[in-house]
Amino acid sequence: MTKHRLFWPAAVLAALLLANVAFTPDFFAVRIKDGHLYGSLIDILHFGAPLILVALGMTLVIATGGIDLSVGSTVAIAGALACLHISESADPGGLGTVLTAAGLALLVALVLGSVNGFLVSRVGVQPIIATLILMVAGRGVAQLVTDGQIITVTSGPFQLIGGGYWLTVPFAVVLAAAMVLLTALLTRSTALGMLLESVGGNPVASRLVGIRAQRLIALVYVFSAVCAAVAGLMISSNVSAADGNNAGLWIELDAILAVVIGGTSLAGGRFSLGGTVLGALVIQTLATTIYTIGVPPETTLVFKAVVVIAVCLVQSPKFRAKLSHRRRSGARRGSRSESAAPANLEVGR
Amino acid sequence: MLRQPVLEVHGIRKEFPGVLALDGVDFRLFPGEVHALMGENGAGKSTLIKVLTGVHESDGGRVLLAGRPATITGPLQAQQAGISTVYQEVNLCPNLSVAENILIGREPRRLGLVHWAEVRRRAAGAVAALDLDLDVSMPLADCSIAVQQLVAIARAVDIDAKVLILDEPTSSLDRDEVAQLFAVMRRLRERGVAILFVSHFLDQIYEICDRMTILRGGRLEGEYLTSELSQRQLVARMIGAELQGLEGLSDSARQQPAAPGGAGAFLRATGLGRRGAVEPYDLSIRPGEVVGLAGLLGSGRTEAARLLFGADQADAGTVRVDGEETVLRNPRTAIGHGIAFCSENRKTEGLVGELTVRENIVLALQAARGWTRPLGRSVQDELAIRWIRALDIRPNNPEALVRNLSGGNQQKVLLARWLITDPRLLILDEPTRGIDIGAKAEIQKLVAKLAGEGMAVLFISAELEEVLRLSHKVGILRDHRMVAQLRNDGGLTSELIMETIASGAQG
């Protein structure tokens, strides 16, 4: 069972959740209040939804051997544009206004993603550099859109996206779940997934086999930007405001981390959407844990780093092999006085 | 000769997911001998070597170094224990100098800084000890593959190796270079180094080796003195059956010495060339015709073939497919015309290691259809299972990862990938290099059969016998130029081809 790809991400998530019970006995309790589901688990899903979306797009980019650092800026730009449109509209609460705003955000994401895709696949810029451009410039664009201010909006339909509920479930969770399912369907019931893995696993061979790698690569950057834009809508909707400076700040790093925890190699090739979702939930659970067990604010980052390092080590087959090897040989000999090393050294001299 | 073996293993076991690679293998190596490790692809040779060098950890068994029990936990410990390895693909750093490559990781230091003069002096010494004439300050990338191979050996020996493992060092060397390598090996043997030698060339084994250990299907078949086992017996023990395949082949493959008549050329290249790769050449291939390309390594065989597949773009000349002029802009256009290309570099240019056998087999077909029109899973399974059976790919599990397969089986996967696209021209670049006799015979038979069914084949190989056996026409390259095209109508011999290669004269 431990050989299943999702075993370790799932085990880590389970361990983190159980650890919370020690501090908060009713951690797993979910109850209905005012027709809404309430509880820590629901919070994790709710606040983790944007990260799941961003990590989803990131997974496909990483599968091709690339990386997308610009998603945080895309989150900010999408939120800023949507809020600006709504705030300047005559009818901020109208459904039409909100749909136009969302459409606008997605359209700009298409453009931003196309720029990334063009730079990487056609011009041949290294992905980390190509997307770094937009990561830095995009923050500036978001600030320009909001004019350096925080734009607040009051709009019922807009607030639904990130803060509302649908059949007792947070709407953001429904949206994220739908996107995950759609992506899984798109990659696994077409040949897209296999061809992406081929391009990431061996680009030279993929060219010789006749795969249109350029198109596929451009496509994943566009997809990543669209995912980021939806996440941007969620984040700004949840607080009914657009903050060009802080919205989606460093989310690209959390997303990359989620992908890696989920078992997708940064070198490209095999990817796992299920793993990515688990990875994103691990990170969100960790964030929640930090609050519930009351880690002092000045040490939260250190705490997070330590847990992340531990998670990565636990997932490394090499590290586990070393650990169990040490334990086994320790148990066999009883004492560690005689190790295998002396024999090696003597022969080696 | 009851000396103490320098290296001895007992009952070594190694299991990979779905594959029992080594099953209780014994092996011993004495100082001052050249010992051949023999076996078909997938017999466990590479795995045993990787266990000995600490790349893989064995799942059971004992290792004795000079009579003392030892555990080899990694390549570094193996090196410290005096076991050095030179792999088929040279694993040095081409961007560093020869001297740096020889001493990297063990640079002599002075005041904490690298003592460069001493580095060069010691490297020169190491090179001279092998009787090589080489400027050690030259970048490794400027050396031929053979010299790189020898530099790797110089490095290995300089680490004070008691055991030197050479894993197919000769597969990309020409005759003189092999002779040079063997001279170095003999010198090392006199010094008491134990050499483990892996090669698919039986003549080389018989020329250099004292003893051999034969593996079959992950088990020990036996250990023999080279002088006591004939080549025929050796082959029979490797494949575990009497040889009928190879005997029958020369008749079946050469059944049609005359090229199939009638049909016009499927592909005709006129003045096709690319600066720096291959000078303009003419070539035509008819349906059902096997055209061989012969020439030394680096003579431009691969470069000529890559132009016909659009892998590199020609900067001169024209290509006509079915009489119509086309530009082969990239592999995709060539594939659209029914051209398939099995690269000689299976790992870097052919297979996607982390995908399964099934996925690798359907990849070309799926790429041609585009991602929006997927092949159904049942269709994929059926294709994979059919071709695994047809080509006897082992293990016969379509979900095995391709990188866990042995070289010969990987080659078959690559062949299967292109055969399911039903190509009209199949370009095979060294399809039998580094694979064992049984698989080699199977692939040769397959080529003859496909041509018999009307497929055009461009067959590139360094082995002249193989080219002669299969081809209707042989193109000969020398120094990036097509110097001759000879019909194989009975009068053509490998001597004649060699003469043409040597003289460069039009035959």
Describe this structure in words.
- The complex is a heterodimer of chains A (349) and B (507).
- Chain A has 349 residues and is mainly alpha-helical.
- Chain A has a single domain (7-315), classed as ABC transporter involved in vitamin B12 uptake, BtuC.
- Chain A is built from 15 helices and six strands.
- Chain A starts with 6 loop residues before the first helix and ends with a helix.
- In chain B, 36% of the residues lie in helices and 24% in strands.
- Chain B has 18 helices and 22 strands.
- In chain B, the strands form five sheets. A six-stranded mixed sheet of chain B has the order 6-9-10-3-11-12, sandwiched between helices.
- In chain B, α4 packs across α5 (145-158), α5 packs parallel to α6 and α9 packs parallel to α16.
- The longest helix of chain B is centred in the middle third of the chain and has 16 residues, at 175-190.
- The radius of gyration of chain B is 24 Å and the shape is globular.
- The termini of chain B are far apart.
- Mean pLDDT of chain B is 86; it is low at 242-259.
- At the A-B interface, α8, α9 and α15 of A face β5, α11, α12 and α13 of B.
Strands of chain B, count: 22
Oligomerization state of this entry?
Answer: heterodimer
Mean residue pLDDT of chain A: 89
- Radius of gyration of CA atoms of chain B, rounded to a whole number: 24 Å
Distance between the termini of chain A: 44 Å
Rounded radius of gyration of chain A (Å): 23 Å
**Chains forming the largest contact:** A-B, 31 and 45 residues
The biggest beta sheet of chain A is recorded as: 2 strands, antiparallel
Rounded mean pLDDT score of chain B: 86
Total tally of structural domains of chain A: 1
At the fold tier of CATH, the topology name of chain A is ABC transporter involved in vitamin B12 uptake, BtuC
Order of strands across the biggest sheet of chain B? 6-9-10-3-11-12
| CATH architecture descriptor name of the largest domain in chain B | 3-Layer(aba) Sandwich
CATH superfamily of the largest domain in chain B: P-loop containing nucleotide triphosphate hydrolases
Helical region count of chain B? 18
Helix and strand composition category of chain A: mainly alpha
Strand content of chain B: 15-25%
